[in-house]
Amino acid sequence: MTTPSRAFGPLDQTRTGWQAAATALARPAVDLASRGPDAMPVTMSNHSHAENWFELLTRPLWGLAAAADAVPDDLWDALAAALARALDPADDWYAGDFGDADQRCVEAAAVGWALATAREHLWDRFAPKAKDDTVAWLSQAYKTGVVDNNWHYFPVMVGHGLDAVGAYRDPSVAAAHLDRIGEFHLGGGVFKDGPQGRVDYYNPFAFHTYALLHYRICGDDRFVDPAADFARTFRSWFAADGAAVPYGRSMGYRFAQGSLWGALAAADVEAVPWGEAAGFSRRLLAWWWDKPILTPDDRLSIGYGYPNDLAAEQYLTAGSPWWAAKAFTGLLAGADHPFWTAEPEAPGPGTDANPAAQAVHVRDAGGHVTRLNGQSWRSKMRGGKDTYARLAYSSLAGFSHAVDGPGLEAAAPDGTLVLSEDGVHWRGREDAVSCAIDWSGVLTTVWRPWEDVTVTSELQAFEDGWHTRAHVIETARRLHTGEGGWCVPRDGNEAAVANDRVAVVSRGVRSEALDDGGNREAALVWPMPGTHMYWPATVLPVLTGVLEPGRHVYRARFYAGRE
Q1: pLDDT over 90 (residue 432)
Q2: What is the CA radius of gyration of the chain?
Q3: Cα separation of 266 and 9, whole Å?
Q4: Looking at the predicted structure, is the pLDDT value of residue 51 above 70?
Q5: Which end of the chain has fewer surrounding CB within 10 Å, N or C?
Q6: Record's PANTHER family (predicted)?
């Protein structure tokens, strides 16, 4: 386990340095994938082993195609040779035919993208049979059924690849997918990720990134304005130190979070000043460059701030993290583009309310971002309650995943309120009955953990690093309550606990919880190891109480900041 800076050297924040970074991160994946499916690690996934291996082979293409001219020939040779075997139905390495809503369609988009942007580096290395196999396989992908969400872009990207090599396709197929994408637009550049989808990082690293790359390839600008609109509010999701607020599914894609900034440059769309776009992009990759996110053989691991399968949904495999390579699409902008020449600009404090996303982002004076959240959980996704339905998320302190087991140690309720009938088994917010955001950035959400329990939570964050939570709880049953502040690393922590206030400091991060009503006790909880997104072991300030049937009001303040 190591960091990219240790494995590959310091990050050079020039275009040449980013080309080298894209190549360095891709090489361990290509080296392993080019040994064939049998070399692919077995990872938990709801896909076949062949599909998992194909992810490992193809996802680095998102970055390599953008950095194409700087990628060594031996890497292109290995990719072309392995891809030729993967698309040959007679070969043992064959990636497989398509079923409806098949995972292979995702990776077909990466192949189409690479052919559309770096044709001479890949296609020209194929023998005639490999070219025929590639066209036949991509033609399958172009016509296959997709999941009814951001996946509608995948056949579109496949179509661009077929165009690049002179193969026929029916343009009405891509047109129908693009029309369906337009139906997901909620306004203001915000897209829901399918009929039952949420607003999360699939907006920037899927919908808007693909829209801008599509525009670059063919000039279709129908979704350029929504991408620009979203970018202007997306600024509030990033801390001054580069960190993005962790929230939603597929956090295992890590710095794909910043792909929108590079895609704007690739499409030459100045949605925000180029100095701002450059700053968000460069600081984000620098933040990740010093995190222990690699395996001992320098591959991107499954996890977030460290290798951790617990942080992964059921569809993530050992090849999945290379979706992060989409962060390098800005390399398609030339060295003289202002995305590369402008002086990076740092963001200041501010509040951004986004009703369509049911969220308020507040960047405090220390540069850290608190997300106040009104969205509901995603029951389909492993960990969907924690990734989508906590009341607050933090760029500085991350968040935790609950695990099976008794007590608040297993519930790990940072950023949220949890309730229990027995003080052992805990339940937090899942579905939201409603969410409202007022002009000042106060978010109010109503939720019902049981049919006879209604909680109205009012949330507000401030530029001094504090945020407040007020809960009106109407219950017909006796309840135990636990409400968490923010976790800090467990090692070397120093804590002070009073009756109604608790503070803990570790590795320069300070977390405090203060009960304003005097009706709860302050304490420290040691969540189960591996539950947190940033740190393997943590300590959490909590406020605990017991409610009898009736109407009750809780008020509290929570702080996270640097010492």
Answers
A1: yes
A2: 24
A3: 26
A4: yes
A5: C
A6: LINALOOL DEHYDRATASE_ISOMERASE DOMAIN-CONTAINING PROTEIN (PTHR35339)
Query: Which pLDDT does position 518 carry in this prediction?
Result: 78
Q: Both tokens of residue 517?
A: 């009503």
Name the band, by pLDDT with cuts 50, 70 and 90, for residue 81. Answer: very high
**Mean pLDDT score, 135-157:** 97
**Cβ within 8 Å of residue 480, ≥6 positions away:** 419, 420, 421, 422, 423, 544, 545, 546, 547
pLDDT, one tens digit per residue, over 9-35 is 999 999 999 999 999 999 999 999 999
Query: What is the Cα–Cα distance from 241 to 129, expressed in whole angstroms?
Result: 50
The DSSP string of 151-212 is GGHHHHHHHHHHHHTT----HHHHHHHHHHHHTTEEETTEE-SSTT---STHIIIIIIHHHH
For 324-386, the DSSP string reads: GGGGGGGGGS-TTSHHHHSPP-----EEEEEGGGTEEEEE-TTS-EEEEE-PPP-TTSTTHHH
pLDDT of residue 383: 77
- Residue 77: count of CB within 10 angstroms of its CB: 13
Cβ atoms of 328 and 63 closer than 8 Å: yes
CA dist 191 → 187, 200, 204, 367, 512 (Å)? 7, 9, 10, 27, 35
Whole-number pLDDT of residue 519:
87
Nearest C-alpha neighbor of 142 from the set 119, 114, 122, 162: 162
pLDDT tens for 371-383 read 999 999 887 888 7
Cα→Cα distances 43→202, 302, 383, 403, 428, Å: 23, 9, 17, 20, 30
Q: How far is CA 30 from CA 27, 75, 312, 355, 388, in A?
A: 5, 7, 22, 42, 33
**Angstrom distance (rounded) from CA 246 to CA 398:** 6
Count the alpha carbons within 13 Å of 292 in the hemisphere toward its beta carbon.
Answer: 10
Residue (of 98, 159, 85, 163) closest to 126 by Cα position: 85
Token pair of 96 as six digits: 């497989």
Helix (H) or strand (E) holding 497: strand 494-497
Q: How confident is the model at residue 42 (pLDDT cuts 50, 70, 90)?
A: confident
